Amino acid sequence: MSFEFPLLSLIIWLPIVFGIAVFTTGNDSNAQLARWLALVGSILGFLVAIPLYSNFDVTTGAMQFVENHVWFERFNVNYHLGVDGISMPLILLNCFITPLIVVAGWEVIKERVSQYMGAFLVMSGIVNGVFASLDAILFYVFWEASLIPMFLIIGIWGGPNRVYAAIKFFLYTLLGSLLMLIALIYLYQTSEGSFSIEDYHKLAIPLTPQIFIFIAFLLAFAVKVPMWPVHTWLPDAHVEAPTGGSVVLAAILLKLGGYGFLRFSLPIAPDASLYLADMMIALSLIAVVYIGLIALMQADMKKLIAYSSVAHMGFVTLGFFLLNTYGIEGAMVQMISHGFISGAMFLCVGVLYDRLHSRQIADYGGVVNKMPAFAAFFMLFAMANAGLPGTSGFVGEFMVIMSAVKVNFWYAFLAATTLIFGAAYTLWMYKRVIFGAVASPAVEGLQDISKREFALLAILAITVLWFGVYPYPLTEIMHTTVDQLLTHVNNSKL
Amino acid sequence: MQKLYLLVPLAPLIGAIIAGLFGRFIGPTWSHRATIGLVFVSLVASIIIFMDVLEGNSYNGSVYTWLILGETRFEVGFLIDQLTATMMVVVSLVSLMVHIYTIGYMHDDPGYQRFFSYISLFTFSMMMLVMSNNFLQLFFGWEAVGLVSYLLIGFWYTRPTAIYANLKAFLVNRVGDFGFLLGIALVLMHFGTLDYASVFAQAPGIVDEKIELIPGMPWLVITLICILLFVGAMGKSAQFPLHVWLPDSMEGPTPISALIHAATMVTAGIFMVARMSPLFELSDTALTTILIIGGITTLFMALVAVVQNDIKRVVAYSTLSQLGYMTVALGASAYSAAIFHLMTHAFFKAVLFLGAGSVIIAMHHEQNMQKMGGLKSYMPITYLTMFIAALASSGVPGFSGFFSKDAIIEAVHFANIPGAGFAYFCVLATVFVTALYTFRLIFMTFHGQTRMDKHTKDHLHESPWVVTLPLIVLAVPTIAAGWFIGPIVFGDYFNNVIHVLPQHDAIVKLGAEFTGIGGMMMHALSTIPFWLSVAGIFTAWFLYNVRTDIPAKIKARCGFLYNLLDRKYYIDELYSWLFAGGSRALGTALWKYGDIKVIDGFFVNGAARVVALSAALVRQYQTGYIYHYAFTMIVGIFVILTLWLY
Question: Which residues form the NADH-Ubiquinone oxidoreductase (complex I) chain 5 N-terminal domain (chain B) (predicted)?
Fold first, then answer.
């Protein structure tokens, strides 16, 4: 299905154009203009993405809304865009989160407003570009470009240790992606001069090079996800990032890694994927158990949620490499749901941080006495984070556990420990922060959430509940694509 | 009829939303009017459905599709049969009474609307649980009642003990759910569906399938499934060793102790196993496990109740023990007796709890029985209803508890699977203990000298009608519910719902001897349980009404035994050291050593240091002095020339 109208280009470039326009509003004397412009841009960005869902054909696994134009003729690089059931929901997630970030930073960010808002809009467009690219070079450009706004957001609006965190984030992810570039160049050679990702899918490669390609991609994607043991940049980045940065990082940027596995590793190196599946499953299960235990002991709320993100993303990679329908669809659902829930969790911490300027659990206690509405929202999101049925957090975990038991009972056993650990670290934190008697004069002076914060959290709350009670639309859009992917993976390239 | 089915859970849900989200605007009175009205609607609908089921109608259908995965549809749907309808009536009746009672108990609490919202939400969740026609929705309801239980135990969130207890309750329940979810996963894997009807239909086909969890040790799949499902039941129905959360749950307000932690939610595990009888029947190993776990819980938890002085804790341990009875009945394949005891227990335990709450109101929130005494003349209605409930609980012939408990004891007696002997001993011995602790409570609270301070004594009075009315209403089935044992346990009431294999025919043998409730009562007079319970009541009367000095002497003599019981066998201490402490220590170790030292310290920052070091090393060669560079060039030329010449 090819559209005359370049919808995907619009989805990519509209936020970027608005972002640049926001930059041009200049210094903070125009802050209000920058905010409104950013809000309009981000909402328009979401609205133009809606046709992607409403006109999406769920019966085909082929690319849709395809645009293909020559970019560099000499190297056969094309401006080639398209989405399938894997990338489309991720684009929608990204477009949905961006307006929330703008609103979240509305009153909180007082310095360099235009740059802050602009950076998020530009990033939103770039990330859409990553998800929509079907040309390897285009993909790589967007992929690397997405680092820059985030680097700046942490480095400029971050906490006291922001420079260390920003550089750690940048180097970690950059080093990972360099090997990916080498793999892409190898694939360019092997395919005799093509940068089309879809061509790579069809390429027959012997097992040994497949393993090398897989590992090169693995480093890039594992850092992004992040998988154990290359996860240590994430807690630092989250702790230093401003609230909006944390939300984007957790809700969107981590998904780039997950997406990469589905777009590159599995279809390009299917035999290597099967060959190394046990290793990948082991790493994922370590993430679930090991990180779950570490999260329990965190004294900093953001670190705790960051570690909990790593554990939840462990479910994503686990689902991928179980290599069956339940697993991959469950992992996809988990990615989307984690976008909402981790975003909401970071917003909740942001609400507290904006008031007391502390992320330490020990500085709080008895918040519910002063902020009952906030406590109710936080409860919902904490329960969602603990995977309570009826929230979207349950759906993905359920599907992946159902999938794991088919492969090996013990995989499911270890994965299911998240029921206990997830509840333990989330609710223990909740107990210490929210419940109890008012712990300090600072807590005594807390004000309950404003209308702006209420709206933000309410939107996310409705989404989390909606997909918990009725997740069917999510799997409906990805089902055909995932089926096709699995058929492809099970068809040896050797 | 189908719309009526939907109404049963949705009415309380709407009530919960009204009181929860809009309670602030509509005020306390309208909040309780809305929720009570809607739960009443639910009760009426449940009764109509019950009548319809009695006429032989049943229903199994879906409401909407939750998810489709591959070939499998996951649906939300209802299965309405005798078991469901019975549970619906019990749940909505007790729930309604507790709603009304709450008006009196919570009237000056700042969280009034929130409380009503929670208990209505609970009613909704419990209805979804019992009405489910598939494992998934069962799990939804299962976790949802756990959530509400968590919220309600921690209702008074400024109390450190309450927020400790609710976290503990949730986590212990999660351990059970962990097993339960794995059980569901195995069901899905082996049957390809989570729909009860299709799973039960296929179940006999997989009796011989084996799974090797540890290489070389094959297990029957059906046994593994049943034991995992039962782990879930152990969490929710507080069976040893996952019982630790229930006594602590008494930190919550008393109405919910009655509704959730006695009458309804904790029986979810019993209900679930009865619902799954077609699966459990296929595994003798699972049944034996259930028998033994149930037997341990029955006896050992009853013993703890004897030494407790907190009135609510006595009732809480009594609940544990009674749940043990139900579990034993399940293990003996006497599912109908288990459900029957579930029902009678719901009524008499609700009365005991609500009565205890009434006492607590009168005592200005003093729960220590040592400071009570002599209340019967001040609170006649509370006294009378609680006395009736105590008789029922002790199994005195004529009262509801007698029939259900006697059926269980006799069924275990007839059961012939391994472990039945042990369980029989446990349930028999517990009859004496039950009568002892129940009447100890009655005598310490209502009889003898008044031991409270003067201020409290001057203000002693019977509770208002919103408190006593539920007591009176629930006292009726506390007496009479047992009279229906004939059709329900021995008759064909549960035909087609509960499946028992011919070789597990304890209840059939028992039914053959059944000659009506009169005959059962007459027969009981010549059996051990009756005399054990009489002995228990007599002992309680002697120790706590006549020679009140003796208990202290016994306590002094048997210090070790007393401490063991008083500290609940030190299980809490063990768990908090082993599991809570263990995972905290492990978490710290992994964090400090794994993440900070090894990954970040050695690899990440180590890599950075290597780069820095080599840079520092290489930098030495860039001194900036011309003669250094010139010297290096000369050396280089020599080296190249040498190499070239050779």
Answer: 66-116
- Nearest-CA neighbor of B520 among B390, B512, B394? B512
Of the candidates A193, A233, A442, A431, the residue with the CA atom closest to the CA atom of residue B604 = A233
H-helix or E-strand containing B74?
strand B72-80
**Residue stretches of chain A with pLDDT short of 50:** 1-3
* ipTM score: 0.90
- Rounded to whole angstroms, the Cα distance separating B283 from B288 reads 9
| B470-508 b/e (C-beta count within 10 Å ≥ 16 → b) | bbebbbebbbebbebbbebbbeebbeebbbbeeebbbbe
Name the nearest CA neighbour of A209 among A219, A217, A197, A221.
A217
Pseudo-torsion of CA B235, B239, B245, B249, nearest 10°? Answer: 100
Q: Give the C-alpha separation, B253 to B561, whole Å.
A: 31
Domain boundaries, chain A: 279-493
pTM of the model: 0.90
Q: Do A405 and B604 touch (CB under 8 A)?
A: no
Min distance B603 CA to chain A CA atoms (Å): 10
Q: Six-digit token pair at A279?
A: 């290793």
| Cβ atoms within 10 Å of B628's Cβ, excluding its own | 12
Measured CA to CA, the distance from residue A227 to residue B9 in angstroms comes to 42
* Tokens (6 digits) for B408: 């269980």
Per-residue model confidence (pLDDT) at position A1: 44
What does the buried/exposed string (b/e) look like for B53-89 if buried means 16 or more CB atoms within 10 Å of the residue's CB?
beeeeebeebeeebbbbeebbbbbbbbbbbbbbbbbb
B557: Cβ–Cβ under 8 A, 6 or more apart, which residues? none
Structural tokens at position B464? 């208002």
Q: Would you call A419 and B177 a contact, using CB atoms and an 8 Å cutoff?
A: yes
Closest chain A CA to residue B110: A369
Asked whether the beta carbons of B19 and B31 are under 8 A apart, the reply is: yes
**φ, ψ at B71 (rounded to 5°):** -90, -10
Longest dimension (CA), chain A: 70
DSSP B3-14: HHHHHHHHHHHH
3-state secondary structure of B365: coil
Count of positions (residues) in chain B = 646
Q: From the candidates A58, A175, A296, A414, which should be mutated to test the interface with B, based on the most B CB atoms within 10 A? A: A296
Per residue in B347-366, is it b (16+ CB within 10 Å) or e — as a string? bbbbbbbbbbbbbbbbbeeb
Would you give the DSSP letter of residue B214? E
| Higher local confidence (pLDDT), B472 or B646 | B472
**Cβ partners under 8 Å of residue B88, min gap 6:** B8, B46, B49, B50, B127, B130, B131
**Which spans in B363-399 are helix H?**
380-394
Interface test with A, best of B143, B227, B598 (most A CBs within 10 A): B143
Cβ–Cβ contacts within 10 Å for residue B217, how many? Answer: 9
Residue matched to tokens 């105590």: B390
Query: Distance (Å, rounded) from C-alpha A57 to C-alpha A61?
Result: 9
Instruction: For residue B108, give the amino acid letter.
Output: D
Using the predicted structure, report yes or no on whether residue B29 has a pLDDT greater than 80.
yes
Nearest C-alpha neighbor of B260 from the set B384, B121, B365, B399: B121
**Which of B305, B248, B330, B294 minimizes the C-alpha distance to B500?**
B330
B615: helix, strand or coil: helix
Give the C-alpha separation, A253 to A146, whole Å: 8
Cα separation, A256 vs A273, in Å, equals: 18
CA distance A266 to A491: 11
Mean pLDDT over each residue of chain B, to the nearest integer: 86
Q: How many CB atoms lie within 10 A of CB B461?
A: 10
